[in-house]
Write a structure and sequence with these properties.
Ribonuclease iii, N-terminal Endonuclease Domain, Chain A, two-stranded antiparallel sheet, mainly alpha, elongated, about 60% helix, Double Stranded RNA Binding Domain, three-stranded antiparallel beta sheet
Length: about 270
């Protein structure tokens, strides 16, 4: 949560200042023309023409552009990516807070992390055709970058940040609602679970181990706000521990820790002669 609030603080700070990007004022950005294809793309996904077109030029500029001598003075979308990440966190957090009134903080955070991550954001960007409009350095592998999960996710965050700067939070929220929350895969993503317990069972079976045993070793707090601590063990050896307001979540955390420990131990084994 500390990182989240740092992002929000930075977001408010940037929004309160006159926009400056790469040494150019907002007025200068407003005069920067957009290619017809990008202008049409923005019109299609936002329903409105750009007020400050130059912001979007930055949003679509992949960092490889700055590596080419002829375009090294250009600014990539990395700063806008930072801003867009904060906007996405805010909009998604607000939405989840409203539609899941019974969910605890940990569950809300878990759901947000399923949506605001590289894989999910790249999927949203891909469905929009965002990669086709990226400006990429001449010496870079264009096909690889346009299909790159990292580049697509970064571009999606950058575009979110650009819309926020261009039209404000309401426009950015509308964009996220349309491209993320109303996306066909949104409910599937939210419903999915990082099921470390199932993965741990699969691991033990594939390695001919006895099944894991979960034990509640501590319960703290009042009845309506208990905190559970669970340990997972194999033949009496504790391999993971988790603490959470729900036993189910504590078991998942314990299973995750056990998986990490077992995987690391396997990696540390000397190679077979």
């Amino acid at each position: 949560m500390e990182q989240f609030w740092q992002k929000l603080t930075s977001l408010a700070f940037h929004r309160s200042l006159p926009f400056k990007d790469g040494g150019n004022s907002l007025a200068e950005k407003q005069e920067t023309p957009l290619a017809e294809t990008i202008a049409a793309f923005l019109q299609r996904i936002t329903g409105e023409p750009a007020i400050h077109p130059g912001i979007y030029l930055t949003a679509f500029t992949h960092r490889s552009v700055t590596h080419d001598p002829a375009t090294s003075s250009a600014e990539s979308n990395q700063r806008l990516e930072f801003l867009g990440d904060a906007v996405l966190d805010l909009v998604i957090s607000e939405y989840l807070y409203r539609i899941f009134p019974e969910s605890a903080e940990g569950e809300l955070s878990s759901n947000r992390s399923k949506i605001v991550n590289r894989k999910a954001l790249a999927g949203f960007a891909l469905s929009m055709g965002l990669g086709e409009h990226l400006m990429i350095g001449e010496s870079a592998d264009h096909h690889k970058i346009r299909c790159s999960e990292s580049a697509l996710a970064d571009a999606f965050e950058s575009l979110t940040g650009a819309i926020y700067l261009d039209r404000g939070l309401d426009a950015a929220r509308a964009f996220v609602m349309k491209q993320v929350i109303e996306h066909a895969d949104f409910k599937t993503i939210v419903a999915s679970e990082h099921n470390y317990k199932s993965r741990l069972i699969e691991y033990t079976q594939s390695h001919h181990m006895l099944p894991p045993l979960y034990t509640v070793v501590a319960e703290e707090g009042a009845e309506h706000e208990k905190i559970f601590t669970v340990e997972v063990s194999f033949t009496g050896n504790v391999c993971g521990r988790g603490t959470a307001p729900r036993k189910k979540d504590a078991e998942q955390l314990a299973a995750r820790q056990a998986l990490e420990m077992l995987t690391q131990a396997e990696q540390d084994l000397p190679p077979n002669p």
